[in-house]
Amino acid sequence: MTRTADALATAEDLLSGRYGEENSEIEEGVLLLHEPAGWAHGVVVYRVCAALSSRVADWNEVAVAAGDPGFWLTHMPDTVRAPDVAVISGPDAAGLEHEPGFARRPPDLAIEVRSPSDTLASQLDKARMWTARGVRLVWVIDPGSEAAYLLTPGAPLQRISMGGSLSAESVLPGVTIPLDEVLP
């Protein structure tokens, strides 16, 4: 990831394409550029999204999105961050697919899949950033170590190994996904 700090980056400029076609986010006005994650990363993101979607397909008031959906978390300076997969539940989920631009609230569940160019420490830092900004549950899936980490505000980090399950209980009652289902 590359940080640029020539001038404060804004959500409006990010949406307009001013910063090019690269995968980018903004952290307190600083533009963050990301390398493409790679095929294996995309496979895991797909499997997570498919597993979640199959469990909540008939639920009203649940929206699941993948492909780095942007969330505008702070203004002046702007912060726009994008998890690999996001879930919004409750009345705010209705109609989100028609909302232009970035969601103006944090997701209820943010899911990050570690790519080879990321360190586990950087992914866990991003998970803490998500919970500090109102996300109720974060999953960090680490294909390289065949493990996942669950983080909720005010609770210790929980490590899940193969054979264990990812619980979304605090956001999506009754939803658990075996880690083996999402890791190839």
General description of the model:
- With 184 residues, the protein is α+β, with helices and mostly antiparallel strands.
- The protein has a single domain (37-182), classed as tt1808, chain A (Alpha-Beta Complex), CATH 3.90.1570.
- Helices cover 22% and strands 30% of the residues.
- The chain is built from four helices and 13 strands.
- The chain has helices spanning 11-16, 39-56, 120-132, 179-182; strands spanning 2-4, 23-27, 30-34, 62-66, 71-74, 79-81, 85-89, 109-113, 137-142, 147-151, 158-161, 165-167, 176-178.
- The strands form four sheets. A six-stranded mixed β-sheet has the order 4-7-8-9-10-11, sandwiched between helices. It has a three-stranded antiparallel β-sheet with strand order 1-3-2, with no helix packed on it.
- The longest helix is centred in the first third of the chain and has 18 residues, at 39-56.
- The chain is globular.
- It starts with a strand and ends with a helix.
- 33% of the residues are buried.
- The mean pLDDT is 88.
